[in-house]
Amino acid sequence: MKFGLRYCNTDKYAVDTALAVELVQAGEQAGFESAWTVEHTVIPSGYESVYPYSESGKIAGGAEDLVLPDPLIWMAHMAGATSTINLGTAVLILPQHSPVVCAAQIATLDHMSGGRVLLGIGVGWLKEEFDAIGVPFERRGPRTDEYVAAMRELWANDCATFHGEFVHFTDTYCLPRPVGGNVPIIVGGDTDYAARRAGRLGDGYFPARDTPQERIDLARRTAEECGRDPEALEITMPMPADPDDVPKMKARGVDRLVVPVTAMAGMPTLIDSPETALRFGDIIAKYSDL
């Protein structure tokens, strides 16, 4: 079993860079495999879009209080302060980005960090954010699928060509390439749409909450229907409140458990400081061989 630190660019770690570095370094020392970020470029005041992960339909706290550093820049800083821990997005809202620019940014970060990037992607839910950025909210699902294909084309080839509905380039160089010619793409989202997308094109599936087993099965079944190896689809889920339940999560087919480092609705915070991250090393040692 792998273990990750979740949403490390939020709350006190968003405003205190030194504390964030201390947290991720402590996680690396304790044996955490990964540290994860989250993205919102802007949050317009008075938004009407429904946040899907709370009963209120709103993000906890007001938009004016949510400090959220850009995940890729934050990860670049952490890459320079660490040596082994992987750095992931959970999620990068892919349809808000140029896939060509994003491919270059991700490849550069992966190259310079020694192959430590995990690209978690989502389609987004906040229409007002899309409007502020100036990209269409409609058809963001098909756009995301094509962006993934275009980015992989740039990563896999010295000179790439791609022509789709949204993306076009011919005989195009995007260097440096990622270590190994690819970056794992992990699809986020606690919906059947996200599960099927993960099965179709993802290297992994990362629902935001403890999703029903049927949804994990849907992701794997979709992979098999698409001629892909369902067992190769890496499943990431939240850490259970009771560490003794880790074997149960493994029995469900979960490969990685992520532990929140800030308070989240309905999810336990087992780590609230660099010190508790270090102490969590005992749990990692106990279950890492599962």
Overall description:
With 290 residues, the chain is an alpha/beta fold. The protein folds into 2 domains: 1-7 and 17-28 and 239-290, no CATH class; 8-16 and 29-237, Alpha-Beta Barrel (TIM Barrel). Helix content is 38%, strand content 17%. It has 11 helices and 10 strands. An 8-stranded parallel beta barrel has the order 1-2-3-4-7-8-9-10, surrounded by 4 helices. It has a two-stranded antiparallel ribbon with strand order 5-6. The chain starts with a strand and ends with a helix. The model has no long low-confidence stretch (mean pLDDT 96).
Protein topology:
Elements: E1 2-6, H1 12-15, H2 17-30, E2 34-37, H3 71-81, E3 86-93, H4 99-113, E4 117-122, H5 127-133, H6 140-156, E5 160-163, E6 168-172, E7 185-188, H7 192-201, E8 204-206, H8 213-225, E9 234-238, H9 246-251, E10 256-260, H10 274-279, H11 281-287
Parallel strand pairs: 1-2, 1-10, 2-3, 3-4, 4-7, 7-8, 8-9, 9-10
Antiparallel strand pairs: 5-6
Helix pairs in contact: 3-4, 4-6, 7-8
